[in-house]
# Entry
Amino acid sequence: MTTTAMEHSHRDDVGSRMGLWLFLFSELILFGGMFIIYAVYRFKHPEEFRLAASELDSFIGTLNTIILLTSSLTVAMSITAIQRDKKYFSMALVVTTLILALAFLVNKYFEWAHKISLGIYPQSPDLVNKPQGEILYFGLYYVMTGLHALHVIIGMVVLAVMVVFIANGKINQHTFVRLEAGGLYWHLVDIIWIFLFPLFYLIQ
Amino acid sequence: MSQPEEHQQHQAISYGRYILIWFGLIALTGATVTFAGMNLGRWIIITALSIASIKSMLVLNIFMHLKFEDRIFRIFVVVAVATLLIFISLTFFDYAFH
# Structure
């Protein structure tokens, strides 16, 4: 009881959320730097970028967009659920998010595996013989979608911990700022994909 | 148990509102894919980025609760995005007039 009282008297939910937002801005600059590189190279090699983009499967990109948007919905709803004291529904929603995240990564795996089987991967003999613009496009494709996928994995770990916290009551109807923080991170991962998707899959 | 910090927490947002936003996001995804299929030439990048920006606004405002946060959060976001846009535009000016 005393520890609970202590926790409450030292709580600053707005400060916690703001801290997470500041972290998200550093993520924005990290990805932003890559978007600048993309923009400049695309400006220099417009035709080659278009040609290279046409080799990506826009169906799988669209499918992954829908999966990630839906995972954002379920994690947002999990906060409403915990606020309404629906503990198990909240857990089910976060677990659904994790399943969707896994589906996203499985699609990504097949997509990359297909590209690699076609001989398109960094420093591959097929790729180095292509024009400069296509090499740059696929380099950026692997680095940016790869870094994004890494964020998906980190987000899955964070959200898995949140499921445990909800289960053991550390996250509850009155104390759910951790779940909000995990959700904010997850939505950022979603927003980055919202930009990666058209830039890599739809510019043909 | 009394909750003196209650005012720091948001009111629960209804499932229906979230689902409505999700429908909007899916519809915009459909729109951007449809536009990409048309022959819009150099307008394609502008429409694609505009739609992506609208989608991001929906995620930021509703899913990330920015609409319900203190004003200082929105000011922070605007400053962060403006900084990024300045970086991008300055880099472009450098390349365009090299």
Notes: The longest helix of chain A spans residues 132-167. Chain A is about 85% helix and 0% strand.
